[in-house]
TrEMBL record:
Highest taxon of source: Bacteria
Compartments where found: Cell membrane
A GO term, aspect molecular function: symporter activity
Keywords noted in UniProt: Cell membrane, Membrane, Transmembrane, Transmembrane helix, Transport
Membrane topology designation: Multi-pass membrane protein
Name of this protein: Dicarboxylate/amino acid:cation symporter
Lineage: Bacteria, Pseudomonadati, Pseudomonadota, Gammaproteobacteria, Alteromonadales
Gene Ontology biological-process annotations: dicarboxylic acid transport
Transmembrane portions of the chain: 12-32, 38-59, 71-100, 132-155, 175-197, 209-235, 297-315, 321-341, 348-370
InterPro entries associated with the record: Na-dicarboxylate_symporter (IPR001991), Na:dicarbo_symporter_sf (IPR036458)
GO cellular component, one term: plasma membrane
Entries under Pfam families matching the protein: SDF
């Protein structure tokens, strides 16, 4: 049994620390408030590494990706499908959460104002800065990601010089990931202490809202996994494609649930794709790329985190906030999801981009940890769907070429 829980070791430790912290906050509030500096030190350490982590990780991953530019249609198809498969679950969970508010009127009182005025998003400032120095601030993560993607493309198109820079970035990325792994040893203590101080001034009813939010995600995940997967399989191969998909998707889904890792599920996914009759040259190219790019489960949970926190803080979820939530969700799935070892990067990304109070980070971590396994199942299973669709697109292209000759 313990071997089966090993994949969830980190999540179990984190959740245990947060439960202990929350209990201290509710039972010994005066003591819990004194723990806040410990949590603040841990968060500050993460904030100190966030800019180089994003810049180097995203740039190096994009630089490597553009080595496949000769494959043209396949690469473009993978990117477009991944984006669409990130938008659909994000929009769906937002619609569900707006209909069935998981907060149910419970308000989180943090006595802290937002850094940005709710309802008045400045998209120019979110997406760009007016000088290079601005990219070095954690408050401009979106702009940093955009510039990192552009830089990665430029490096990938710069021939031998680009390869030398890409190799250097890979080495830097290894060092950055090691720094992150060192910092994460303190995560249970740091986040537990911060959550204790947050809960010290809150109503115990706040705990119930977590269950509602997580329950909402599980309902949405089941609907999306069954209905969405069937529709994607039909797009990729018609009725026969749906039958083939469900005949072979169970093993990858079970592996994803057991390991909570898209990467660990890759060998099983490759075998399933070949059993489905997908060409080797398609499966061998698409699935390794989709492991990092196609993360609809991550997009769904990111969107839920944002609307849940807005509801808890009593903030209006305006059309502008809706749009930026979709953008953050897609980027979390498409770019940040591919950053190895970037623990809590998604939570920090949400908080800094939307100007939310730092106290909400442990709440986001709780939701993310509990929903990680089903989210991974969605990611893995839909990698198979995406590969089906890519194969159909390439087959149509080949048939068009044959007809033209």
């Amino acid at each position: 049994m313990w071997n089966g829980l090993q994949a969830y070791r980190t999540s179990i430790i984190l959740l245990s620390a947060l439960v202990i912290g929350g209990t201290l906050g509710l039972t010994l509030p005066e003591f819990a408030l004194k723990l806040k500096p410990i949590g603040q030190i841990f968060l500050n350490l993460l904030f100190m590494i966030i800019v180089p982590l994003v810049a180097i990780s995203v740039t190096s991953s994009i630089a490597r990706m553009t080595d496949l530019k000769k494959l043209g249609l396949i690469l473009v198809s993978i990117m477009l499908i991944s984006i669409v498969m990130a938008i659909i679950p994000a929009v769906g969970i937002l619609g569900l959460a707006m209909t069935f508010d998981p907060a149910q009127g419970v308000t989180l009182d943090l006595h802290q104002s937002m850094q940005t005025e709710p309802g008045s998003m400045d998209f120019v400032s979110l997406l760009t800065t007016n000088d290079f120095v601005g990219l070095l601030s954690k408050s401009n993560i979106l702009a940093l990601i955009i510039m990192s993607v552009i830089s990665g493309i430029a490096i990938g198109q710069s021939g031998e010089d680009g390869k030398r820079i890409s190799s250097m970035l890979d080495s830097l990325n290894t060092v950055i990931m090691k720094i992150v792994s060192i910092l994460m040893f303190a995560a249970p203590v740091g986040l537990g202490a911060y959550f204790a101080s947050t809960m010290a001034s809150q109503d115990s009813e706040l705990i119930v809202t977590f269950a509602r939010a997580i329950g909402l995600f599980f309902i949405a995940a089941i609907i999306y996994l069954t209905l969405g997967s069937s529709i994607y399989a039909w797009i990729g191969g018609g009725k026969a494609g749906v039958k083939l998909f469900w005949k072979n998707a169970i093993e990858p889904a079970a592996t994803a649930l057991g390991t909570s890792s898209s990467l660990a599920s890759l060998p099983v996914n490759l075998r399933a794709a070949k059993k489905m009759g997908i060409k080797d040259e398609i499966a061998d190219i698409c699935l390794p790329l989709l492991v990092n790019l196609n993360k609809g489960g991550a997009s769904m949970i990111t969107a839920l985190k944002i609307i849940f926190i807005y509801s808890l803080l009593g903030l209006e979820f305006t059309p502008d906030v809706f749009a930026i939530t979709i953008l953050i969700s897609v980027l979390s799935a498409f770019v940040i999801g591919g950053v190895p070892g970037g623990a809590f990067l998604g939570e920090i990304f949400i908080v800094t981009t939307l100007g939310l109070p730092l106290e909400v980070i442990p709440i986001l971590v709780i939701i993310g940890a509990v929903t990680d396994a089903p989210s991974t199942v969605i990611n893995v299973v839909h990698d198979l769907n995406a590969t089906q669709i890519v194969e159909r697109i390439t087959q149509k292209r080949d048939q068009t070429k044959i007809a033209a000759t």
